[in-house]
Amino acid sequence: xxxxxxxxxxxxxxxxxxxxxxxxxxxxxxxxxxxxxxxxxxxxxxxxxxxxxxxxxxxxxxxxxxxxxxxxxxxxxxxxxxxxxxxxxxxxxxxxxxxxxxxxxxxxxxxxxxxxxxxxxxxxxxxxxxxxxxxxxxxxxxxxxxxxxxxxxxxxxxxxxxxxxxxxxxxxxxxxxxxxxxxxxxxxxxxxxxxxxxxxxx
Length: 202
Fold this sequence. Notes:
Blueprint: H1 2-16, H2 21-30, H3 43-50, E1 59-61, E2 64-66, E3 75-77, E4 84-86, H4 96-117, E5 141-148, E6 151-158, H5 159-164, E7 175-176, H6 177-200
Antiparallel strand pairs: 1-4, 2-3, 5-6, 6-7
């Protein structure tokens, strides 16, 4: 499907030319271009596309395995040497040269992150991550931070507005981490005090 194939090539070109995952997602959402899954674009959908070797004309199997220690359906990646790759299985959408440009930039950025130039979020250490919902779009609130006067200033914000752009959610409000978390903890403490008093009786 040529119009969809061109979207794929455009994602690769934009990233190779310097656009971030977030910039690509925002641009496509603003233009009303749907993601391969039929919804809006976010950082993870752009990243997944740039790692998908099917666009090179390959068919890849045996990339994951089920982790029996985790909940049903949870899969973990296998080492690349265990993958089964059939090259030239179908016509390629992106050229090898374009793929290599993207891979080179990803490698450069990964090295920058490992050397302290950025962060990778694995499990959030923040109290309310995954518990707060945006009243406009229903997306989760996530933590963003900035350094100001030598200290880190944490703020919660809508993940859809941040990762998908204002065309998906216009809620740009930032809520201070300490203000919000302290308010929640105070409310919980008050509720526990009331319950303890009620259980104690007169």
